[in-house]
Each structure stands twice: as C-alpha cells, then as structure tokens.
Amino acid sequence: MNKIRVLPEILANKIAAGEIVERPASVVKELVENSIDAGSHSIHVAIRAGGKRLILVRDDGLGMSQDDAILAFEHHATSKLETVEDLSAIATLGFRGEALPSIASVSRLTLKTRPDDPDTVSGTQLEIQGGILRSVKPVAWDKGTEISVKDLFFNVPARRKFLKTNDTESGHIARHVTHYALANPEIRFTLQSGDRVLLDTVAVSTVRERIYQVFGDGFLDNMVELSGSGGPVRIYGFSSQPHEQRSNTYSQYFFVNRRMVRDKVINGALREAYRRCMPAAAYPVVVLFLELPFDQVDVNAHPAKTEIRFHNQSSIYNLVRESIERALSKNIIIPEFGKREPRSYAFETPGKGTQFVRDTGDVLETTALKYHPINESHFDTGQHGFPFPSERNVNENSSTGEDHTALRIHPDLLLDSKRAASEPLVSESVRILGQYRDSYIIASDRHGLLIIDQHVAHERILYEKLANSMKNREVETQGLLNPFSLDLAPHNMALIEKVMPELMRNGFHVEAFGGATIIVRSVPAIAGETDYRKLMMEILENLEAEDREADIDRIRDRIAVSTACRAAVKIHMPLSIEKMQWLIDQLAHTQIPTSCPHGRPIILRFNHYEIERKFGRV
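The chain above was modelled as a monomer; its predicted structure follows.
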C-alpha cells in the first residue's frame, strides 16, 4: 500500500488557509489590499464580534464580471502576474491569487460585484460555503465589490477555539485598517465595529492630514518630520522626539512602497538612531515610508506578505538611521544617556571570587582577572531581600529615568502574592545619613550601609495603598477643574470598552465623547499632580501590550502600578530628612519592601564585613 497520497482538495484548501488566514485581521488585511489594488476611492470595513461573526469589506473599485468573479476563487488565479519576470518586481499589494479561495474555504462568503462598464446592466452575486460554490446569480449592484465573510473557521473548530476575545480581535483589525489608512490618504476609510465607528476618514492629499484624522489634534506636536534619499531610495515620514515614548511598538508604522511591513533592518536602524537619547525599554512613535524600485525588494518572503527582504540591506539601514538622526538633531539637542567618566567597581560575591567591573558609560566592562559570570537569579530582590551590588545593579543606565512603566509587571511582586522579602525592613533601626544626587537615600542599619531608590520606594508605597483601596472599593477620587479629552487610535478605542468599567470603579471618571475621543473628568486622589494624559495613555498601552486577555484583577493591577509610578516622587528631587524618614517608615510596612512591581530593586545593602574587608580591616 502506498504511503504517499494526494490530499483531498477541501483538506488541502484548509491547510493553505492556515498559512494566510491566521485570525479575522488577516481576512481584513487581504480584502482591503484587494480593494486598494482595484483603484478604490472609498473602502468601508464593518465587523461584528471581533470579525468572528461578520467581516464586510465594500469598495468602489473596478469590480469584476461574472466570469472573473467565479475564476477569482480558483487557487493561483490572479490578474496581477503574467510572467515569471513579473514576480521580481511586484507593484501590487496582492499577487498570489491565494487569499480569496483560502478565506472562502473556512467561512460562509458572499460576494457582490459589478465592473465599471456601462454595458454591464447588473452585478454578480456568489455564495460560497466552506470552499464549495453554492450559487451564482445576477444582482442589482453599483460599481465596485462587497465581500461578506461570516462565521470564520466554522468548519475548523480547532482554529476557532484559539481566537482571542472580541475586543482583542477588534484591536488587531483596527490596527490593520489604520496602517492602510495612513499609507493611502487619497482613499476614504471607514471602520465600524457593531454600532461603533472606530475610524472615519475623508480623502486628503497629504500624509500629515491623514495622521491628523487618525490620531487627532496634538499627535504631531512632539514629532519631527524626516526625509532623505539615497540613489533611487526615498524616505519620508514622522518620528517622535526622545521625550515622547511608548511602552510597546504598537505606535510604529512602517511602509515600503505603501505596503505595511515588519522588518528587522528598519527596526535595527530605528533603535540605533535613538540609542543615545532613549532608554532601551522605551519605544519611539514612528510613521515611516520607504519608496524604492520594485525590483529592489522581495515581498514574496512570507505568505502574509508582511515580511520582506531588501536587496541592499546596508544602504537601507544607513538611510533610515541617518535620516532619523538628522531630523532629531535639527529639532532638539539630543541628550546622551550614559556618557560620563569611566569608573571601576570591585565587589565580592560568595563563591564567585572578586568581581572587577569597569563602567565606561555605555556598558559595564568586566576585566578578565578573577572574573566569573554572575548568575543574575542570585540577585532576585524579591527572594533574597537586600542584594549586594551586581553588574545589573550598579549600571546607571538602568536608572537614568524614573519612568519605567514600560517594564512588564511581575505577578509574584504584586499585593497579596504569596511571595515576600526574606528579610523585612525594620525602620526603627535605620539611621538616615543623607541623599545622593537628589535621587537615592543613604542610610545605615545594624547590618550595614543602605542605598534606597526614592522613586521606586515611593512607587511601592503608593501601589500597595492604591491596590488595597481598589480591593476594598474605597478609592478616593479627585475631580478635575479642567476635564481633558484624549484622541485615541482606533485600536485603543477597540480596547476602551473593556477597561472603561474598571477605570470608573477605580477613580477614573471616563466618558466616550464621540468618534475616537474620550473625556476624563476625575482621577484617583493618589495620582496627585502627575501628567494625567500620559497616565491614561500608559494604562491603555500597557494593558494592550501585556495581555489583551487580562482579567479584571490584572486590569486593576495595571491601573494601580501605572498610577503609582506616575505619582511617585521623582529622581533628582531634593528631600528633607523628615520626608526621607517618612518614606522609610512607610516602606517598612509594605508587603515586599525590596522590589517594585516591575521587579526593580528598591534597596541595595553593603554589609559591615564587606565594607571593612575592602578597607583591609579584616
């Protein structure tokens, strides 16, 4: 009996669909790309239940005749390639002829279309279920095409089971539509989720106008315009000033010949351009367009067509990096993190021998003499109480700024976790000696010398206080004399319905204000005089980045952590002895006084024996 056999066509189609149709957003991407290729001036996208129940894409493009409409659902049927040579210079977004048959094989699909031809008196309607053509009939229809995709993965329950919540899938769809709206300002885009309009843009002539439509007033205030060229390659767009940071890459939009892409070359150049003016855990906001000859980029590297290959990667890398650096240098003085006089540190760790660390400003260089790699888990502050300095601890780059909300939350460092510091802080035995660089409290206790990060210590105090209040439903609020509005990106609007009830219960009075705008009328009293706009954006961005499937407790944790971090005293802030003593007293009453919820250490200890050993007294 033969072991190798040809798969049935229906099974083969479902396998092919798995490569192209990952989730509802994949369907929207393929259909919107077809609409753009068809020369549309208006594209309308409507979804229900995050695209699981319905995805509808309607355009006013070229449309199709009945014969073409039927042929479009055959595998490898395309109007965009004719010869092998065409494959090396692809000028359209779609080209393989695989999207429509793949989508139709895992859904109940209806197509209505009519070509822009005065001699064609009626349109064509096709109904396909699970890849099987059920009916073809004439229909009264204007020019253009409408494709309705219902019950995605109805015949592949294993795939449907792995889809995320409706809010999550809506967010992914919103992000895809936003990308193509930015890349095609001359086309009107609308996106509707249920009865809610997430995006509605009219056709405009410039990218700047489209950015204003999508992201609202004020988005470009902290952006710099960039442009450049190198041979046949042109770059243009906008990039944020270093102080305008995000905790994830969701606000980075890259386009190559108007195709949205994910590319390591562009990412690497972007990170290098911001390396000396932005912390490693933060991300800039970027809307970046590259235009180059079609034969200098391979867009056929991945079934989803989002991963590409440049023929000359080094020139693209240099052009992107230099263009961003030039734009930044023209608009601001770029602060350089970590530029300082080299210093050396020497310390000993039990069982490791003497460690010699030379801090050159950018990285910590360790001498070969008596050096052994350090196991970072040994310095897990939540488990081992007050750690002795390690390479990770003494590197000032890790504490250049106090804002570290971009870091992921450690669940075992949150309130009510079973984990606690192995050695509690006894405030009665702590004697304050002073403040170092207006950022660190220097103190001593019966064990040795303590260095306490004032910002992270206060963050821990505020976090536990707010988390307790949330748990007991006793959050104090403060009304704002001047309520403020926030214009949200479409993918943030897809998330806001899920988190708004919890925001309201925990001190934030938030109201929808039409379109993609919300109004904030009150905040938790513990937030003090912080920047409320940035606080709200951080809560939304970090919830999305950390886990869109987060339950209510996780949402509360993120709200509490972000609020505490924003409200805590800052580094480079002089404190009185009384204020420092208050911080230590309050810190001693927290559950985990050694780490903030992000896992950063609060206290470093140099014990008496180690200090005397360094001075040669023992």
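Confidence is low (pLDDT under 50) at residues 333-401.
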